[in-house]
């Protein structure tokens, strides 16, 4: 194998995105449990924590993860069962299960492809895939533990749908992937071996 490998970049960005996503969700839903919201940019942007008193608390290991992720609170966060902008969320359990399977398949595909020879030597591709992988795993965690994705970032000035850090990583990663696919020069072909 020739050329520099950016596997570390893909895996490092994925780990950063995942921990930042889960940490920001933990902080927001724990700190805003009683306040409900915190205006970060008055008139424009705030963190908002919404709860669903009818959402069941699980038993066993999932209960431990739920209570840890909510700071020990018994009322579960309101979740998005669908994808971005709530698409496909009407079916609740089915939608969440479907998107959880899609997320897991996407994560396996990204790892399989992104850590291989040529793709692992492309810096911008590794950055894009790392962000997408981290965002995918962050929302996958929520789907398994909470039955849907916890959203808390809200541009209320323009009534943008509530989202989270994982969504940001997915959108930025997908944008970089598109730019890389359109504008990156094709990989150089290996030099032909000299003939005798």
TrEMBL record:
It holds the Pfam family Peptidase_A8. The keyword Transmembrane helix applies. It catalyses: Release of signal peptides from bacterial membrane prolipoproteins. Hydrolyzes -Xaa-Yaa-Zaa-|-(S,diacylglyceryl)Cys-, in which Xaa is hydrophobic (preferably Leu), and Yaa (Ala or Ser) and Zaa (Gly or Ala) have small, neutral side chains. Its EC number is 3.4.23.36. The chain crosses the membrane at residues 94-115, 124-141, 161-183. It is found in: Cell membrane. The keyword Hydrolase applies. GO terms for biological process: proteolysis. The active site is at 151, 167. GO terms for molecular function: aspartic-type endopeptidase activity. Pathway: Protein modification; lipoprotein biosynthesis (signal peptide cleavage). Its main location: membrane. It is a multi-pass membrane protein. PROSITE patterns: SPASE_II. One of its GO terms (cellular component) is plasma membrane. Keywords: Aspartyl protease, Cell membrane, Hydrolase, Lipoprotein, Membrane, Protease, Transmembrane, Transmembrane helix. It comes from the Bacteria. Belongs to the peptidase A8 family. This protein specifically catalyzes the removal of signal peptides from prolipoproteins. This is Lipoprotein signal peptidase.
């Amino acid at each position: 194998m020739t050329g520099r490998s950016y596997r570390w970049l893909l895996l490092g960005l994925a780990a950063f995105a995942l921990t930042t996503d889960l940490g920001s969700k933990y902080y927001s839903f724990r700190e805003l449990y009683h306040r409900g919201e915190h205006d970060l940019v008055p008139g424009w942007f705030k963190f908002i924590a919404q709860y669903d008193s009818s959402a069941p608390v699980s038993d066993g290991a999932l209960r431990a993860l739920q209570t840890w992720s909510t700071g020990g609170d018994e009322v579960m966060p309101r979740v998005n069962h669908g994808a971005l902008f709530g698409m496909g969320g009407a079916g609740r359990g089915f939608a969440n299960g479907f998107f959880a399977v899609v997320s897991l398949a996407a994560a396996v595909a990204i790892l399989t492809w992104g850590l291989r020879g040529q793709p692992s030597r492309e810096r911008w591709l590794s950055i894009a895939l790392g962000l997408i992988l981290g965002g995918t795993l962050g929302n996958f965690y929520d789907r398994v533990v909470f039955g849907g994705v916890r959203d808390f970032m809200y541009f209320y000035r323009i009534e943008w749908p509530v989202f989270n850090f994982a969504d940001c990583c997915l959108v930025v990663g997908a944008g970089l992937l598109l730019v890389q696919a359109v504008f990156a020069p094709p990989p150089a072909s290996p030099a032909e071996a000299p003939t005798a």
